[in-house]
Write a structure and sequence with these properties.
The chain has 111 residues and is mainly α. Helices cover 44% and strands 0% of the residues.
């Protein structure tokens, strides 16, 4: 889906302003601006990172611990890795046994 600026957007940024077709963000112009390809890559990285940031009240599905969501917090993937590394040896063994049990289950129709 390509971004089509509205009349209000054109009024705000100028009719000659170019927008990233994927994210809809306006490209910077001027002597200090990065090339459009670099700006577009940054826009995508920021979008993907924002998608992995925890929201208030969100919990880790693997450990049921609450994610930190304040400014400067780590992504959900990174916090989950930390939570898993902090499990007790007994909890790690139980998780490994459950994972092995799932791996040993024969899919329906394959028995």
């Amino acid at each position: 889906m390509t971004f089509q600026p509205s009349a209000a957007t054109n009024a705000m940024f100028g009719a000659d302003c170019e927008f990233d077709p994927v994210t809809g963000r306006p490209f910077e112009k001027g002597s200090g601006a990065l090339p459009k390809e670099d700006q577009a890559a940054n826009f995508l990285r920021e979008r993907d990172r924002a998608a992995d940031m925890p929201k208030e009240g969100e919990r880790c599905i693997q450990t049921n611990r609450a994610f930190e969501f304040s400014s400067g917090c780590l992504t959900k993937a990174r916090q989950t890795a930390i939570f898993l590394s902090e499990l007790s040896p007994a909890e790690k063994a139980a998780r490994a046994a459950a994972a092995q049990h799932l791996a040993d289950v024969v899919p329906a129709g394959k028995a």
